[in-house]
Design brief:
162 residues, four-stranded mixed sheet, 19% helix, alpha+beta
């Protein structure tokens, strides 16, 4: 396989996106909303730092005031992409297994959804461009791409040039 176009680490406690709960007014929100917002912000900032891209200004439907690109075209890549994330979670002291197969972590696809959404508008215009995706959840230093602390290693390939 070719080398990824972008590869960068993100440090911090990973948060999965997926568990919704209703408020007393009937609105749905993420059960871990504060942690999820912080994690997606770290992923987004790491992508900005690595790619040299900028966040869409203002964030919304209008064109970016910095580059004049519309929201649907704001991102480093505009074609199909492959996304791989190796998510490193903290190993609980009571766990001896090499892989996080307990309910102490989110499901792998919840991590992938949080990372995919966080990269929208920076690495690519929309997460629907991810046509090949993979997420690995591991403890520190178990997987070859695992970090020594909680976080993730994110790799992105441009499939149009691969």
């Amino acid at each position: 396989m070719t080398r990824p176009l972008f590869q960068f680490p993100v440090f911090g406690t990973p948060a999965g996106q997926g568990n919704l709960k209703g408020s007393k007014h009937g609105k749905l929100r993420h059960a871990n909303g504060d942690e999820l917002k912080e994690w997606r912000g770290k992923v987004r900032q790491a992508a900005i730092d690595h790619t040299g891209a900028h966040d869409r200004q203002p964030f919304g439907a209008r064109p970016c005031v910095l580059c004049d690109r519309p929201a649907k075209a704001h991102g480093e890549l505009l074609g199909p992409v492959r996304l791989e994330a190796v998510v490193t979670v903290a190993r609980p002291k009571s766990v001896r297994a090499d892989w996080p197969t307990t309910r102490s972590t989110s499901d792998w696809d919840h991590y992938a959804r949080a990372i995919g959404d966080a990269l929208t508008g920076v690495a690519y215009a929309d997460d629907s461009q991810v046509v090949d995706g993979r997420a690995v959840v591991t403890y520190p230093l178990i997987h070859p791409d695992a970090l020594h602390q909680p976080g993730a290693v994110i790799k992105i390939w441009n499939l149009e040039t691969a």
